[in-house]
Write a structure and sequence with these properties.
The structure is a single chain. With 365 residues, the chain is mainly alpha-helical. 44% of the residues lie in helices and 8% in strands. It has helices at residues 30-62, 80-89, 96-105, 125-131, 148-157, 163-170, 206-222, 231-244, 251-263, 271-278, 288-291, 314-321, 345-363, and strands at residues 71-75, 78-79, 111-112, 115-119, 139-142, 196-199, 330-333, 339-342. The chain has a two-stranded antiparallel sheet. A two-stranded antiparallel ribbon has the order 2-3. The longest helix has 33 residues, at 30-62.
């Protein structure tokens, strides 16, 4: 048999002149290597633009609002996020979310205490954060010797409320009757607004002040004297005692004088009650004892005044509740604060002469 012819030899691949004939033509990797660095640079540049834009946006959102008048806000105990949303709605900050991020980054508390805070548009994020650390404190002293109108002026000067608003609340006891467990008088809260040093932030409001004072009275007086048949009478006598004597140890004795004179049908002749009727605190002129036409002029009318004449302290209320038993009917205050007591008019006049002598000696150079 004749063997088959071998297959023809494959034609050699064409090569460029001068090229190695044994080299196999493959796709070159040169162009890909030249494009990869340019692609990374473009990605990096894009990321840098995004980061820069984000940083600019965050910085812009933390930028203070236009300057505006300060406001006092009552904030409940709440989360930081909730509080910041409130501030954003009031125009204090631009963006609650971004501001919250910045605060958490630096470890700001996530809970804001309840209270009143003073902030204003135009504050930086740091200033806002500092303001939220501590509620406002505005200590106001309402003295035992003051009646409501005098305290109203103190509260207005402290920025707590308007004097007129406070007095309007004082004249509206029915509004507060359901909030306390003792009977309030019908016409005025005078005498029941407990004297103390209170933390009343600016703008606290007249109703909130009255409510706080009544609750303090209830806690210190109403719950301690549940056996009193006539609370209003006790508070009225306590208010007279408060303005008539300076030393606590003498208060029960003065309360006893008041009870003795009432029992005998004698007029009380208490100067401070005339002062209350005039709504002025100053030495009385001699003629005013006779001419002041007021139910509070106890030189002209018998019995107790229509209302308490100040907010008495607990010491005066205790004295009115448990007056000292004695025969005294008169008393006079000496220049050094001591009170001289007498059971008859002759001894009282002698005490009064002693007072005049001491005053004259004190005036000598």
């Amino acid at each position: 048999m004749i063997p088959p012819e071998p297959p023809p030899e494959p034609a050699p691949a064409e090569t460029l002149p001068g090229a190695n004939s044994s080299a196999v033509a493959e796709p070159s990797a040169g162009p890909a290597r030249s494009r990869r660095p340019h692609g990374c640079l473009l990605v990096a540049a894009g990321l840098a633009v995004v980061v820069a834009a984000a940083a600019w946006w965050v910085t812009d959102q933390l930028r203070p609002m236009p300057i505006g008048p300060p406001v006092t806000l009552s904030l409940p105990r709440a989360s930081l996020s909730s509080t910041l949303r409130t501030l954003q709605s009031r125009g204090i900050i631009r963006n609650a979310t971004v501001t919250g991020w910045s605060y958490r980054l630096f470890g700001q508390s996530r809970i804001i205490r309840s209270g009143r805070y003073r902030l204003s548009p135009g504050m930086s994020a740091h200033q806002v954060e500092q303001a939220l650390r501590q509620p406002l404190r505005n200590w106001v002293r309402l003295p035992e010797t003051n009646w409501a109108a005098r305290n109203a002026n103190l509260l207005q000067r402290a920025g707590v409320c308007l004097a007129t608003e406070y007095l309007a609340e004082v004249r509206n006891p029915a509004k507060y009757q359901r909030e306390v467990n003792f009977r309030l008088p019908a016409q005025s809260l005078e005498g029941y607004l407990y004297p103390d040093t209170y933390d009343f932030p600016p703008g606290y409001g007249a109703a909130a002040v009255v409510r706080t004072q009544l609750k303090t009275f209830e806690r210190k007086v109403g719950q301690a004297f549940t056996d009193v048949p006539d609370l209003d009478r006790m508070v009225t006598i306590a208010s007279l005692v408060q303005l008539e004597v300076a030393r606590d140890e003498e208060r029960p004795v003065v309360a006893g004088v008041i009870e003795n004179r009432l029992a005998r049908g004698m007029r009380l002749q208490i100067d401070a009650s005339i002062n209350y009727g005039l709504q002025v605190w100053r030495p009385l002129r001699r003629s005013e004892y006779r001419t002041v036409d007021s139910p509070y002029n106890l030189y002209r009318v018998e019995g107790l005044p229509p209302t308490p004449i100040c907010s008495p302290s607990l010491a005066s209320i205790r004295a009115a509740h448990r007056p000292a038993r004695h025969s005294y009917l008169y008393y006079v205050a000496m220049p050094d604060g001591e009170t001289k007591f007498a059971s008859n008019l002759d001894d009282h006049e002698a005490n009064f002469r002693e007072r005049k002598r001491r005053l004259a000696e004190a005036d000598r150079p």
